[in-house]
What does this fold into?
Amino acid sequence: GESVGLHLPTLSVQEGDNSIINCAYSNSASDYFIWYKQESGKGPQFIIDIRSNMDKRQGQRVTVLLNKTVKHLSLQIAATQPGDSAVYFCAEKEGGTYKYIFGTGTRLKVLA
Amino acid sequence: NAGVTQTPKFQVLKTGQSMTLQCAQDMNHNSMYWYRQDPGMGLRLIYYSASEGTTDKGEVPNGYNVSRLNKREFSLRLESAAPSQTSVYFCASSELDSGHPYFGPGTRLTVT
It folds into this structure.
């Protein structure tokens, strides 16, 4: 089985509830932030992104919130479904560079 | 439109053997990346190529070499594999300094 993701923080939610996954980023010069979803045995899949000139961005069932004051990023998933079970990563990029820094991830488990 | 493809999907090497991981993208992206993913470590950048004809070291380049063969292809070579290089390797591509990286499905490498 997939060994990546062992010992990750885990968030367990009931199907149909809303999920909130948090991420603290490290670089105050970062100006672009991304959330990825990674299912077992697969590559990271883009969910949503946000630039530092915004505080909130919404997609289909997902919302990203950015608080630059405390360097915090969150991903909200509405009406969580079994297919949302995966590991979720945040990533940050400093303006003018090609280096993305990835968090270690949070495992989301959806309980039926 | 296949996105980012990687070969092989799985590989087992003995210590000291060499191999090349292949990556290709069909999205006409300028930038390409190689990451490794280890449990609890997140994705770490090995090498990147900002554009065709250029390559630069990332966070963990030791023991690896890369070749940007053309705009589509970016290969990663392990000259003398070590057990510490057991990992999942992901290739990614993005537009030059804009937009999020798209990831391939990964190569699971075990060095014994």
Summary: Chain B has a mean pLDDT of 94. The interface with chain A takes residues 4, 31, 33, 35, 37-45, 48, 50, 56, 58-59, 88, 90, 97, 100-106 of chain B (CB under 8 Å).
